[in-house]
Design a protein that fits this description.
Elements: E1 4-14, E2 20-32, H1 36-42, E3 46-48, E4 54-56, H2 69-79, E5 88-93, E6 96-97, E7 105-111, E8 117-125, E9 131-137, E10 140-142, E11 145-151, E12 165-172, E13 176-185, E14 191-204, H3 207-216, H4 220-238, E15 254-256, H5 262-277, E16 281-286, E17 292-295, E18 302-308, H6 312-330, E19 334-335, H7 339-352, H8 359-373, H9 379-390, H10 394-398, H11 419-433, E20 441-445, H12 451-460, E21 463-468, H13 471-483, E22 490-494, E23 504-510, H14 521-531, E24 532-544, H15 547-554, H16 559-563, H17 573-583, E25 587-593, H18 595-611, H19 613-618, H20 623-641, E26 646-653, H21 658-667
Parallel strand pairs: 3-4, 16-18, 20-21, 20-23, 21-22, 23-24
Antiparallel strand pairs: 1-2, 1-14, 2-5, 4-6, 5-7, 7-8, 8-9, 9-15, 10-11, 11-12, 12-13, 13-14, 16-17, 18-19, 24-26, 25-26
Helix pairs in contact: 5-6, 6-8, 6-20, 7-20, 14-17, 18-20
Length: about 675
């Protein structure tokens, strides 16, 4: 028999950022895998895949399932494309003691025909019940010592992040084992910052050595976890070490992922029931450990793919529905090979078969509604809300906008047209619809980065007063205006629309109305009515939501309004016309939809944004920000492509304003009322 039982010591030591050391006695085993069935038959108190005082179960190792260890290891060897013949495999591990086990690491030592260990499979566990396999090949051998080096790829201790490399040393003379793992980090000059050491002296595994050891260490199996918790509390409270949250395991060698919580299981029931009930196509779901589930009929209707990286995806979905879906994407809990296609699938499925919320989801929704109410667009609140989105960084916006720095829907003549050309076409169309002349004084509500104001002054020679609540935008817009030599024609004010004074010939607001809020629509249009001269024109470009959904939508909140546009609310055309009718003298001269162009605009933004991922990170934005904005772009792109939302250009004037009406009809005319929205 090659199998042995060892008594020895586990030691842990930290050199950085604080010094700490502890050790405690342990016993562990070396099993020759071929001997496990015989030990099961001949060693009293030992069980192989059955209950006993001491036991080893195949299902506890590598991936979940009842496959034999031999088959599992064969699968691993195929996975790593290991060609050398394996003659013998030894397992160095802790075993269950009355079904209790603390097994931070196990080692599968693979020997060739010459009885040399050329491959070690180190199976590491963490307290989240996750398992990762480090494949240690081609050791550097000195005498009886084998050394390996491998990058860290698995979260174990909350007091270290994932950076660094492991140096692993095996010293084994057949009777004594000395295994040492050192973690080296670049911030310490690739010097060891941590070590874990397991040493022991072995004896043949017999009834005598087994029960003698168990009697010597009767409570070891129970004490291991309390010992670890005690040291963790010392590091946190006494040594004040920072704690790193558990990252999502992305390595293909993380064999077991964290099991789903109760909320996650509830979320799985909800989402899988929803997928089963949908009839618009087929969706393929891949679970964290690789299991695939297909809902719908292959080849029918829409097609989508959903890959779950972490079961916490289902928890967030169960608790917060659509809001949870966005949060989970930001955290990296799920992904899709085609995010827009997945959004398209979800929009279509929800419209046909709404998801039924559980009682706890409704409670969470109340919390988010309260959060949303704190984002009211009062004079102070509007400034805060705008700043949270538009004052992120001018350099960040340059990473995805074209050289015109236009952050609104473009109008394309073809799908391959340059974004800057499409944006200038849209801007020129707006100015044309506004019927500007050099004698006019234009009020622009929402400066952006100054493109429309510069274009208006350049093409028409008019005066422009432009207002914004974004300090970053005001600063860059003023710089661009000065560089264009137009500072005498354009004045950019940091001002709320409620504080504007004077009289203006034209007012233009491009995709600013979404930041006003339903309660403030009457006030906004009354102010525009007051500021506009009797023979003036008001131009509004705004993203809208269908009339049928507006009332329900305006009484709730969603991911977009919480995390991208705080205080935002999409109006509907009917809601706007009702306000105009009841609170102003305005009449609608023209309404034109350019929404389909927005899907292509957003696709271009997302492409440029993701292409500049590294540069955006260098600006100080984390990966979670990248995923948040990728989700935002994809969400909106799918919404516009499916006409779930629209973008309208609305021209307003007053009755008996014959001069403006004649001018508008001469410039626009029936032939120009509708651009090719299918482009």
């Amino acid at each position: 028999m090659n199998s042995q039982i060892f008594t020895g010591v586990v030691s842990h030591g930290r050199h950085w950022p604080k010094k700490h050391h502890f050790s405690y006695p342990v016993y562990f085993y070396r099993f020759d895998l071929k001997e496990l069935p015989e030990l099961d038959r001949t060693l009293p108190g030992f069980g192989y895949n059955r209950f006993s005082v001491v036991r080893i179960d195949d299902r506890d190792y590598l991936w979940r399932g009842n496959q034999s260890l031999k088959d599992k290891i064969t699968g691993v060897l195929e996975k790593i494309d290991y060609s050398e013949s394996i003659h013998r495999i030894e397992l160095i591990s802790f075993a269950k003691y009355f079904n209790i086990i603390f097994r931070p690491v196990s080692f599968f030592l693979c020997y060739n025909a010459a009885n040399l260990c050329r491959l070690v499979l180190a199976e590491v566990h963490n307290t989240f019940r996750e398992t990762h396999l480090y494949v240690l090949k081609d050791p550097h051998v000195q005498s009886e010592t084998s050394c390996f080096e491998i990058p860290k790829a698995f979260h174990v201790s909350p007091f270290f992040d994932l950076s660094g490399k492991y140096n692993i040393r095996f010293k084994d003379d057949g009777q004594k084992i000395d295994i040492c793992v050192k973690l080296n980090k670049s911030e310490c000059g690739e010097k060891p910052v941590f070590f874990a050491k397991l040493t022991g002296e072995g004896r043949p595994l017999t009834p005598y050595t087994l029960y003698r050891t168990l009697l010597k260490y009767p409570f070891n199996a129970v004490l291991n976890m309390p010992r670890i918790i005690r040291q963790a509390l010392t590091l946190y409270f006494k040594k004040k070490l920072p704690v790193f949250s558990k990252p999502i395991p992305h390595s293909e060698y993380t064999m077991r992922k964290q099991l789903p919580s109760w909320f996650a299981r509830e979320g799985m029931k909800v989402i899988f029931s929803f997928f089963k009930a949908q009839s618009i196509g087929v969706i393929t779901v891949k679970l964290p450990e690789g299991e695939r589930r297909v809902f719908g009929t292959e080849g029918s209707g829409l097609s989508a793919q959903l890959q779950i990286k972490d079961y916490r995806f289902f928890s967030l979905l169960a608790k917060a529905g659509e809001i949870g879906l966005g949060i989970a994407y930001e955290k990296g809990y799920w992904t899709s090979s085609n995010l827009v296609q997945f959004m398209d699938f979800m929009f279509s499925a929800i419209m046909m078969h709404p998801v039924q919320m559980r009682w706890y989801s409704k409670l969470v929704k109340i919390f988010y509604l309260g959060w949303n109410l704190s984002n009211k667009n009062t004079l102070y609140g509007a400034q805060k809300n705008i700043s949270r989105h538009y004052d992120l960084s001018n350099d960040m916006y340059k990473m995805f906008l074209d050289e015109t720095l236009t952050y609104s829907c473009a109008i394309f003549e073809s799908e391959n047209e340059a974004l800057a050309d499409a944006q200038l076409r849209k801007t020129d169309l707006i100015l044309e619809k506004a019927c500007l002349s050099e004698n006019h004084h234009l009020l622009e509500i929402g400066t952006g980065w100054g493109t429309l104001a510069i274009r208006a002054a350049t093409l028409y020679g008019c005066r422009i007063t432009s207002i914004t609540l974004s300090k970053e935008q005001q600063q860059l817009a003023q710089q661009r205006i000065a560089q264009a030599g137009l500072s005498d024609r354009i004045n950019v004010l940091l001002c709320d629309y409620r504080n504007v004074t004077g009289q203006y010939d034209r007012i233009i607001a491009v995709e600013m109305l979404e930041a006003v809020g339903k309660a403030y629509y009457p006030g906004f249009f009354r102010i525009c009515d007051r500021l506009l001269k009797a023979n003036g024109m008001l131009f509004i470009q705004t993203i809208t939501i269908p009339d049928q959904r507006f009332e329900a939508y305006s009484k709730t909140t969603d991911w977009m309004r919480l995390f991208i546009f705080p205080g935002g609310l999409l109006p509907s055309l009917t809601a706007l016309t009702k306000v105009l009718t009841e609170h102003t003298s305005f009449v609608i001269k023209q309404v034109e939809s350019i929404g389909p162009h927005y899907a292509l605009t957003l696709a271009r933004w997302k492409e440029r944004f993701l292409a500049n991922r590294e540069k955006i990170i260098e600006l100080g934005f984390p990966e979670t920000f990248i995923r948040r904005w990728e989700y935002y772009f994809s969400y909106c792109q799918a919404g516009f492509a499916q006409q779930y939302i629209d973008d309208l250009q609305i021209v307003l004037t007053r009755p008996r304003n014959r001069d403006c009406i004649n001018d508008f009809e001469q410039k626009i005319g029936p032939s120009k009322l509708h651009l090719d929205n299918k482009k």
